[in-house]
Design a protein that fits this description.
There is one protein chain. The protein has about 325 residues and is α/β, with parallel strands linked by helices. The chain contains twelve helices and 14 strands. It has a seven-stranded mixed beta sheet with strand order 3-2-4-5-7-6-12, sandwiched between helices. Strands 9-11-10-13-14 form a five-stranded mixed beta sheet, sandwiched between helices. Strand 6, helix 7 and strand 7 form a beta-alpha-beta unit. The N and C termini lie far apart (about 50 Å).
Length: about 325
């Protein structure tokens, strides 16, 4: 058994290295991914070890990067694209939603597009405009795309392995504020299904469902609530498309209350779909309405105000109080 304690960024680097070693058709592409090793150093050392033809520094042109990746995938390659920051993905949005997501259906299943698009996302790093967005719902809404986000180092490693091996395009959101969080990674483990939610803390009074950067916040909320005698279950959703509604339903049938937490704005966010579906599925089990905690329906603010914008411990616990008051 090969178990090592790694940060999320190092786990992603190790996963990319494993994929490059295992399959000569795997390529890494993006702005500054080669010589610099990425702005977050996630791809550090890969171009040195695998060469400029496998780890490719691209022009500053996201639409061109994704378009090139589509062409490479059509020729049998498995490109892994890095979008440098979440807010930079929009020049490539047309390529992703009208080409990458649709090609398989357009070809009646005869064409596969095994493209992974890695996107560091979310706030709390004190960045400037366009560097702290959470656009996952925009991609989850598009049929033909898989959308996932790890919350810990083990998932960062294994979910990326599974994404690269998938014959379908995968949008892989990396919680940049958690890049330096460390946990154990077993690189010889047998991973569970890519799109299955996981209970990371059992509880009996209420379910907190989150993904990516907010899982740690929900675990902190559960610990704080435990000091007041409240037992909160924390569910790491891991996947935003498809969503593992069966696991959420099973948890809510036990706890009878649900609070969904994400950094993205609450308005038309992933939590809205979860709230609607669980209300339909669990109407006779629920003892309170499904509540949502997230960002505001406003442009992401300057860094001095981001602590007010982002959902934190107090806003999660406030929702817990409101749900338990019914």
């Amino acid at each position: 058994m090969s178990v090592e304690k790694l940060s999320i960024s190092k786990a992603i680097n190790a996963s990319l290295r494993t994929a490059l070693e295992a399959d000569p058709k795997v390529l890494i592409m993006g702005e500054d991914v080669g010589k610099l090793g990425g702005v977050f150093r996630v791809t550090d050392g890969l171009q040195k070890d695998f060469g400029e033809e496998r780890v490719i520094d691209t022009p500053l042109a996201e639409s061109g990067i994704v378009g090139t990746a589509i062409g490479l995938a059509l020729r049998g390659y498995r490109p892994v694209v890095e979008i440098q920051f979440d807010g930079f993905v929009f020049p490539a949005y047309d390529q992703i939603v009208t080409q990458l997501a649709k090609m398989h259906a357009r070809a009646l299943g005869k064409i596969k597009l095994p493209v992974v698009i890695r996107i560091p996302y979310g706030g709390a790093i004190g960045a400037v405009e366009h560097h702290s967005e959470s656009p996952e719902a925009l991609f989850a809404h598009v049929a033909g795309l898989k959308v996932v986000s790890p919350s810990n180092s083990s998932d960062a490693y294994w979910m990326l392995q599974q994404a690269i091996q998938s014959d379908d395009p995968v949008i892989y959101f990396e919680p940049k504020r958690r890049y330096h969080d460390r946990s154990e990674v077993d690189t010889e483990a047998i991973p569970g299904p890519l799109h299955t939610a996981r209970t990371v803390r059992p509880g009996t009074d209420l379910t907190l469902a989150a993904y990516g950067p907010m899982v740690k916040t929900c675990l902190e909320a559960a610990s704080a609530a435990a000091e007041e005698g409240r037992s909160l279950e924390v569910l790491d959703l891991r996947s935003m498309s498809p969503i593992d509604f069966d696991s959420i339903q099973a948890s809510v049938e036990r706890t009878r209350r649900l609070v969904v937490v994400h950094e993205a704005p609450v308005f038309l966010g992933t939590g809205a779909e979860i709230a609607a579906r669980i209300t339909e599925r669990c109407f006779y089990h629920l003892e309170a309405p499904v509540l949502r905690v997230g960002g505001y329906h406003a442009p992401y603010p300057p860094s001095r105000l981001e602590d007010e914008y982002l959902p934190g411990l107090d806003r999660v616990l406030d929702a817990v109080d409101r749900a338990l008051a019914y």
